Amino acid sequence: MKEVEVIDCIQHEDERGWVAWPVISHLLVQGKISDLHVPSMKPGAVRGNHYHQHTNEYAFVLSGPCRALFYNNTTGEQWEFVVTQHKPKLFKIHPNVTHAFKNESNQDIFLVCYNESLQERSDTDTLRRVILDAGR
What we know:
mainly beta
């Protein structure tokens, strides 16, 4: 699905673990990043189930297994991606794509999320749409 990109962010791994830089530096320089947040997900929990009308959302899934589901509200196309336990992934989600993340591990996992403003921020930019639930 071209409306969702998996971005290879800069990562380094050694005997201590890994470190990653998930924030796109040119967006920082341009002042386009907003709403930086770090959601936690308990085992079986689902986050997301919404889409944005005028912003790109970046979601950096730190660990897994985590199921990521994306639905293009215009075409009806659906795409699923599973983040494995030790391979973090950065997703760039374009406007009008519903997205949801489900923790399929037996421990809490975390995401780092932020928005790229494509126009002035509006409280009505985020609209709820359920495509994934805890029972699925």
